[in-house]
Design goal:
The strands form three sheets. An eight-stranded mixed sheet has the order 8-9-11-10-14-18-15-16, with helices on both faces. Strands 1, 2, 3, 4, 5, 6 and 7 form a seven-stranded mixed sheet that branches. A three-stranded mixed sheet has the order 12-13-17. The protein is 35% helix and 20% strand. The chain is built from 15 helices and 18 strands. It has two domains: 166 residues, Leucine Aminopeptidase, subunit E, domain 1 (3-Layer(aba) Sandwich); 302 residues, Zn peptidases (Aminopeptidase, 3-Layer(aba) Sandwich), CATH 3.40.630. Its EC number is 3.4.11.1, 3.4.11.10. One of its GO terms (biological process) is proteolysis. It is found in: Cytoplasm. Its cofactor is Mn(2+).
Length: 492
């Protein structure tokens, strides 16, 4: 999708004009209504369009203008207009026209917003344009995207272009994460995933890949146990972006990268198991974030680390009842091999803090089904040992429309993972506080480092059907929130 910023007089293709509450036409919409001898007003009168945020109304082949169609898009209450509303509105327009035959559309935002708002509208357009069609060989032409260009008319073109330089890479990061999530597990496995990350060196990232021999030497038996039945070798991939001051401690982002999770010996039910190709959603968010930070040349030192593993059953699979020793030296009794993500993160978190002495650590994982019961699929759960990090993530989530909600940690929950046979067990007590007990497990591998765990099992896959910015099963959730967290709090 090509994004351009133009003046109002340069409109081409379909035209999209805004309206506000009670179908109040913007100045741009009024000019188009006048040119079409009142076509917009007549269409509104014949419809239920009210100008609410996210609403659209399409008018085909109106007389009086050189455009195949006009789309009126709602922005809601003008007094409450903000960048998020503009994002959703532009996304709604693109979703409306994407496969409709139009090749270009001009969004008339002149007179309504500044360069930053125009850039955020462009972000919404990009997010809505994503498609995962690469394996569809018989897709008919009428179902293929026709829209290839979005021009946004704005008063200050230079300011919009400048702002887009910071938001375009975020769109790239989200699409990267989506593409990873949507790949089938016979294509994306720990080895091919590691090779793909190696290619990110062209973005200016420093890349390092640890193989099983290196991890064995480090004592990562917790991670290695998860992947020991897979035909594919487990890896840890490390991505460094050195955009901050020399010697400044880095921010570290850790992602769970289970390219497929069968549950192992504790085999998952067959129904829905195909969606376990998305159990690497945490790693995808980290890879997408590093794509965004490097693309916009963020002024921060950041490291992304992802544990890439496949959890399969065979004669060499880890068993319930096994006891493994993590890199930290702590022992873990395996009571359920489907509670594997925390075993991977345990060694990666320990490695990260021991190797990089970070300013803070944030991990993301599609970790527990219990989080969907608690929060559904509109918010991710956060667990933290640091109030400042938690508060900043909460603010970043609201600002990026990827909201989070903090759940508790504490001694009353620590007992859920106690066992007489090892230092801890890898699952809690039955169905009680499943997401919290998983976070308590991870907390034992961070010492006193400022840390937050984000459980994205409810937000990484499936998408919000009523949000045109999420057109894909793999949502890429977390990239925008983490980018906002970094840019608002840690860039010099």
């Amino acid at each position: 999708m090509k994004i351009e910023f133009v003046t109002a007089g340069s409109a081409a293709g379909a035209i999209a004009v805004p309206a506000f509450d009670k179908a109040s036409l913007s100045a741009a919409a009024q000019s188009v209504d006048s040119a079409t001898l009142g076509a917009l007003g007549r269409a509104i009168a014949a419809s239920r369009f009210k100008g609410g945020a996210g609403e659209t109304l399409e008018i085909i082949a109106p007389a009086g203008i050189d455009a195949g169609r006009v789309v009126i898009f709602g922005l809601g209450d003008k007094a409450k207009l903000n960048e998020s509303v503009l994002e959703k509105a532009a996304a709604a327009v693109v979703a409306k026209l994407l496969i409709g035959g139009e090749t270009a559309v001009t969004l008339r935002l002149d007179g309504e917003t500044n360069g930053e708002g125009a850039a955020r509208a462009a972000l919404g357009a990009r997010l809505a344009a994503y498609r995962f069609d690469q394996y569809r060989t018989k897709l008919s032409d009428d179902k293929k995207p026709s829209l290839t260009r979005v021009a946004i008319a704005v008063d200050d073109v230079a300011a919009a272009k400048s702002a887009w330089a910071n938001w375009g890479p975020v769109a790239d990061g989200v699409d990267t994460a989506r593409e990873l999530l949507n790949q089938p597990p016979n294509i994306l496995n720990p080895e091919t995933y590691a090779k793909q990350i190696q290619g990110m060196a062209k973005l200016g990232l420093e890349i390092e890949i640890l193989d099983e021999a290196q991890m064995l030497e480090l004592g990562m038996h917790s991670l290695l146990g998860v992947g020991q039945a897979s035909e594919f070798e487990s890896h840890i991939a490390i991505m460094r972006w050195n955009g901050g001051k020399a010697g400044e401690k880095p921010l570290v982002f850790v992602g769970k990268g289970l390219t497929f999770d069968s549950g192992g010996i504790s085999l998952k039910p067959g129904a829905g198991m195909d969606e376990m190709k998305g159990d690497m959603g945490g790693s995808a968010a980290v890879v997408g974030l590093m794509t965004a930070l490097s693309g916009r040349k963020a002024k921060v030192n950041a490291i992304g680390i992802v544990g890439l593993v496949e959890n399969m059953p065979d004669g060499n699979a880890q068993r319930p009842g096994d006891i493994v020793t993590s890199m930290s030296g702590q022992t873990i009794e395996i009571l359920n091999t489907d509670a594997e993500g925390r075993l991977v993160l345990a060694d990666v978190l320990w490695y990260a803090q021991q190797t990089f002495d970070p300013k803070l650590m944030i991990d993301l994982a599609t970790l527990t089904g219990a989080v969907l019961i608690a929060l559904g699929n509109t918010r991710a759960a956060i667990f933290s040992n640091d109030d400042t990090i938690a508060d900043r993530l909460f603010a970043a989530g609201n600002a990026s429309d990827e909201p989070v909600w903090r759940l508790p940690l504490g001694p009353d929950y620590e007992k859920h993972i106690e066992t007489k046979n090892a230092d801890m067990r890898n699952v809690g007590e039955g169905r009680l506080a499943g997401s919290i007990s998983a976070a308590e497990f991870l907390k034992r591998f961070v010492n006193d480092k400022p840390w937050c765990h984000i459980d994205i099992a409810g937000t990484a896959m499936g998408g919000m059907k009523d949000d045109p910015r999420q057109p894909s099963w793999g949502t890429g959730w977390g990239v925008r929130m983490l980018d906002r967290f970094v840019r608002d709090n840690y860039e010099g």
